[in-house]
Amino acid sequence: MEISSEFIWLLIGVSLATLIPRVLPMVLFSRINMPGWLLAFLRYVPIAVMTALLAQSVLTEDEAWIPVQDNLNLLALVPTLLAAVLTRSLLITVLTGIGAMFLLQWL
Amino acid sequence: MGERTGERLTFWGGVRDCIPTLLGYWSIGFAAGVVGATEGLNVLEVGLMSTFLYAGSAQFIVAAMVGTGSTIASIIATVFFINLRHLLLSAAVAPYFRQYSAKKNFLLGAQLTDETFGVAISRLSITAEGRDKWMLGLNITAQVNWIVATLIGAWLGMSLANPEQFGLKFALPAMFAGLVVQSLLHRKQLRQDMIVAGSAIVYFVLAFLWFPSHVAVIIAAVAAAITGMAVERWR
Q1: B223: domain range?
Q2: Is B221 in contact with A49 (CB distance < 8 Å)?
Q3: pTM score, two decimals?
Q4: Do B119 and B196 share a domain, yes or no?
Q5: Which DSSP letter does residue A65 get?
Q6: At a CB cut-off of 8 Å and minimum separation 6, what does B7 contact?
Q7: CA distance B69 to B165
Q8: pLDDT digits over A37-48, tens only?
Q9: ipTM value of the model?
Q10: Residue of B nearest to A9 (CA)
Q11: β-bridge partners, B8
């Protein structure tokens, strides 16, 4: 197994980008007080990022739109969302999605 | 009687309190390993990501962006952005670790995740002794299980020839769909969150008309989070 120097830089970069927000408030504890608008913004960040990524992974492939009439992702998304709402389990959601895509590819 | 001062927490108590979350680590970690491998990372690279990055959603994003050939800078920027929420988690547990040294807090904070945060915030009390040892037990148990689960997932993902034919390429969108639905249902503000989620899709579609998709994701996420703030303020 080979590790490229490009991967090492990526690893260092993403690890530091994650480590800093993790440790900073705990190390500085009460000394920093985040302004209210920043807290409000941060509260919406996870859902905003996740939905944007969902849109990207469902609607595009290799930097191009997948034509809507050929887009199996959109069809597979229906049972996937249903499973997510009904079971609230990530594992069952992912398995449902994979199973739906498997069936759609053979139809 | 009645006053619970001096409750003694231990390292092994932290290990035990981690157990209910392990099924979650195994399932997400396994899926993250499979996706990492199908998007082009090898088992060693997945293991290094689980050791040093150690963040489920960020590892999915890294895999997805490596798969689409994004630049290193844009991957780092996206990961930084999505992991900014750790500022909130870290700030929220900080009061429980105020008496410990900066070095100790650095080590305990470095392994903070959504799940360990959830366990810590529901279990810790300011009067209990040994919170540092307990947190370390919780942290180490969680990460060891995470690393093992992602390695197994990656190994399986790599040993399948042509994983697309099994529908495995949809693991990534399915994972994001599950995470979106979970955070929508988890918080008690469905209407505002739905507006944020809906606007993120619209912003992405608009941004992708002019920008590469990984840039469009960042633009859409920032714009959607600002939309959420604005709705909250002017409602």
Answers
A1: 187-235
A2: yes
A3: 0.70
A4: no
A5: E
A6: B125, B127, B128, B129
A7: 22
A8: 877 887 788 788
A9: 0.83
A10: B72
A11: B129
